[in-house]
UniProtKB/TrEMBL annotation:
Membrane topology recorded in Swiss-Prot or TrEMBL: Multi-pass membrane protein
Transmembrane domains' residue ranges: 39-71, 103-121, 133-157
Pfam families linked: FtsX (PF02687)
Name of the protein in its database record: ABC3 transporter permease C-terminal domain-containing protein
Keywords: Cell membrane, Membrane, Transmembrane, Transmembrane helix
Annotated ABC3 transporter permease C-terminal domain residues: 54-163
GO cellular component, one term: plasma membrane
Cellular compartments annotated: Cell membrane
Amino acid sequence: MGVAFAVLLMSISYGVSDRIQADLDVPQLQDVGFLDVGLIEAILGALTVAVTSAMIIQTAAATATVGWVLMQSRKREIGIRRQSGVFRGRLVTDFMKEMTPPVVGGALVGEALGVLGGFAIRDLTVLPVTFNAVSLFASFPITILLAGVATAIPAWLAAGKSPKTMQAVQ
Protein backbone atom coordinates (compact mmCIF):
# COMPACT_ATOMS: atom_id res chain seq x y z
CA MET A 1 0.00 0.00 0.00
CA GLY A 2 2.95 2.30 0.56
CA VAL A 3 3.70 2.30 -3.17
CA ALA A 4 0.07 3.15 -3.97
CA PHE A 5 0.01 6.11 -1.59
CA ALA A 6 3.40 7.31 -2.78
CA VAL A 7 2.34 7.24 -6.44
CA LEU A 8 -0.98 8.90 -5.64
CA LEU A 9 0.33 11.71 -3.45
CA MET A 10 3.33 12.47 -5.63
CA SER A 11 1.09 12.61 -8.73
CA ILE A 12 -1.29 15.01 -7.00
CA SER A 13 1.61 17.12 -5.78
CA TYR A 14 3.09 17.38 -9.27
CA GLY A 15 -0.36 18.08 -10.73
CA VAL A 16 -1.08 20.93 -8.34
CA SER A 17 2.39 22.36 -8.92
CA ASP A 18 2.02 22.15 -12.71
CA ARG A 19 -1.43 23.76 -12.61
CA ILE A 20 -0.34 26.67 -10.44
CA GLN A 21 2.78 27.23 -12.53
CA ALA A 22 0.67 27.27 -15.71
CA ASP A 23 -1.66 29.83 -14.13
CA LEU A 24 1.32 31.97 -13.13
CA ASP A 25 2.81 31.95 -16.64
CA VAL A 26 0.35 34.61 -17.77
CA PRO A 27 2.43 37.66 -18.82
CA GLN A 28 0.00 40.10 -17.17
CA LEU A 29 0.62 38.49 -13.77
CA GLN A 30 4.36 38.73 -14.17
CA ASP A 31 4.14 42.41 -15.10
CA VAL A 32 2.24 43.24 -11.92
CA GLY A 33 4.78 44.35 -9.35
CA PHE A 34 3.15 42.95 -6.22
CA LEU A 35 3.18 39.28 -7.25
CA ASP A 36 6.53 37.50 -6.87
CA VAL A 37 6.08 34.66 -9.36
CA GLY A 38 9.64 33.41 -8.79
CA LEU A 39 9.00 33.01 -5.06
CA ILE A 40 5.73 31.18 -5.65
CA GLU A 41 7.41 28.82 -8.11
CA ALA A 42 10.26 28.21 -5.64
CA ILE A 43 7.76 27.40 -2.87
CA LEU A 44 5.86 25.03 -5.17
CA GLY A 45 9.09 23.30 -6.13
CA ALA A 46 10.11 22.92 -2.50
CA LEU A 47 6.69 21.57 -1.50
CA THR A 48 6.74 19.06 -4.36
CA VAL A 49 10.20 17.86 -3.33
CA ALA A 50 9.07 17.65 0.31
CA VAL A 51 5.98 15.57 -0.52
CA THR A 52 7.96 13.32 -2.87
CA SER A 53 10.72 12.79 -0.32
CA ALA A 54 8.27 12.15 2.50
CA MET A 55 6.41 9.51 0.50
CA ILE A 56 9.61 7.76 -0.53
CA ILE A 57 10.88 7.79 3.08
CA GLN A 58 7.51 6.50 4.35
CA THR A 59 7.53 3.68 1.80
CA ALA A 60 11.12 2.84 2.69
CA ALA A 61 10.46 2.82 6.44
CA ALA A 62 7.33 0.68 6.16
CA THR A 63 9.04 -1.82 3.86
CA ALA A 64 12.12 -2.09 6.06
CA THR A 65 10.04 -2.50 9.22
CA VAL A 66 7.86 -5.25 7.77
CA GLY A 67 10.89 -7.10 6.40
CA TRP A 68 12.75 -6.86 9.69
CA VAL A 69 9.78 -8.10 11.74
CA LEU A 70 9.13 -11.02 9.39
CA MET A 71 12.75 -12.15 9.53
CA GLN A 72 12.85 -11.84 13.32
CA SER A 73 9.80 -14.12 13.56
CA ARG A 74 11.71 -16.84 11.70
CA LYS A 75 14.67 -17.12 14.06
CA ARG A 76 13.65 -20.58 15.19
CA GLU A 77 13.52 -21.85 11.60
CA ILE A 78 16.93 -20.32 10.93
CA GLY A 79 18.35 -22.01 14.02
CA ILE A 80 16.99 -25.41 13.02
CA ARG A 81 18.30 -25.10 9.46
CA ARG A 82 21.72 -23.97 10.68
CA GLN A 83 21.83 -26.90 13.09
CA SER A 84 21.04 -29.16 10.13
CA GLY A 85 24.16 -27.89 8.37
CA VAL A 86 22.72 -25.30 6.01
CA PHE A 87 25.30 -22.60 5.30
CA ARG A 88 24.65 -18.98 6.14
CA GLY A 89 24.78 -17.80 2.51
CA ARG A 90 22.31 -20.48 1.45
CA LEU A 91 19.85 -19.37 4.13
CA VAL A 92 20.01 -15.77 2.99
CA THR A 93 19.63 -16.82 -0.66
CA ASP A 94 16.61 -18.98 0.18
CA PHE A 95 14.92 -16.17 2.10
CA MET A 96 15.63 -13.70 -0.72
CA LYS A 97 14.11 -16.07 -3.29
CA GLU A 98 11.09 -16.55 -1.05
CA MET A 99 10.65 -12.82 -0.50
CA THR A 100 10.96 -11.66 -4.11
CA PRO A 101 7.63 -12.78 -5.68
CA PRO A 102 5.31 -11.32 -3.02
CA VAL A 103 7.29 -8.08 -2.81
CA VAL A 104 7.38 -7.55 -6.58
CA GLY A 105 3.71 -8.54 -6.84
CA GLY A 106 2.73 -6.21 -4.02
CA ALA A 107 4.72 -3.35 -5.50
CA LEU A 108 3.08 -3.89 -8.91
CA VAL A 109 -0.39 -3.95 -7.35
CA GLY A 110 0.47 -0.82 -5.37
CA GLU A 111 1.70 0.90 -8.52
CA ALA A 112 -1.54 0.04 -10.33
CA LEU A 113 -3.72 1.15 -7.40
CA GLY A 114 -1.85 4.44 -7.17
CA VAL A 115 -2.37 5.15 -10.87
CA LEU A 116 -6.06 4.16 -10.73
CA GLY A 117 -6.50 6.32 -7.64
CA GLY A 118 -4.86 9.22 -9.45
CA PHE A 119 -7.21 8.87 -12.41
CA ALA A 120 -10.20 8.69 -10.06
CA ILE A 121 -9.11 11.79 -8.16
CA ARG A 122 -8.47 13.68 -11.40
CA ASP A 123 -11.90 12.72 -12.77
CA LEU A 124 -13.96 13.10 -9.58
CA THR A 125 -12.40 16.15 -7.90
CA VAL A 126 -10.89 19.49 -8.80
CA LEU A 127 -7.39 18.28 -7.95
CA PRO A 128 -5.09 18.09 -10.95
CA VAL A 129 -2.97 14.94 -11.20
CA THR A 130 0.26 14.69 -13.18
CA PHE A 131 1.96 11.36 -13.75
CA ASN A 132 5.66 11.66 -14.48
CA ALA A 133 8.72 9.44 -14.16
CA VAL A 134 9.29 10.34 -10.50
CA SER A 135 5.68 9.88 -9.39
CA LEU A 136 5.35 6.61 -11.29
CA PHE A 137 8.70 4.95 -10.76
CA ALA A 138 10.42 6.33 -7.65
CA SER A 139 8.73 4.13 -5.04
CA PHE A 140 8.86 0.82 -6.91
CA PRO A 141 12.65 0.22 -6.99
CA ILE A 142 13.09 1.63 -3.50
CA THR A 143 10.48 -0.80 -2.18
CA ILE A 144 12.15 -3.76 -3.89
CA LEU A 145 15.63 -2.74 -2.75
CA LEU A 146 14.62 -2.14 0.85
CA ALA A 147 12.63 -5.35 1.05
CA GLY A 148 15.76 -7.18 -0.06
CA VAL A 149 17.92 -5.38 2.49
CA ALA A 150 15.30 -5.87 5.21
CA THR A 151 15.35 -9.59 4.46
CA ALA A 152 19.05 -10.13 3.87
CA ILE A 153 20.50 -8.27 6.87
CA PRO A 154 18.38 -9.91 9.60
CA ALA A 155 18.72 -13.32 7.91
CA TRP A 156 22.51 -12.90 7.71
CA LEU A 157 22.73 -11.78 11.33
CA ALA A 158 20.45 -14.54 12.61
CA ALA A 159 22.23 -17.18 10.53
CA GLY A 160 25.54 -16.13 12.08
CA LYS A 161 24.41 -16.97 15.61
CA SER A 162 24.90 -20.41 17.00
CA PRO A 163 21.76 -22.56 17.07
CA LYS A 164 22.05 -22.95 20.86
CA THR A 165 22.11 -19.18 21.33
CA MET A 166 19.07 -18.80 19.10
CA GLN A 167 17.14 -21.47 21.00
CA ALA A 168 17.98 -19.74 24.27
CA VAL A 169 16.49 -16.50 22.90
CA GLN A 170 13.27 -18.30 22.00
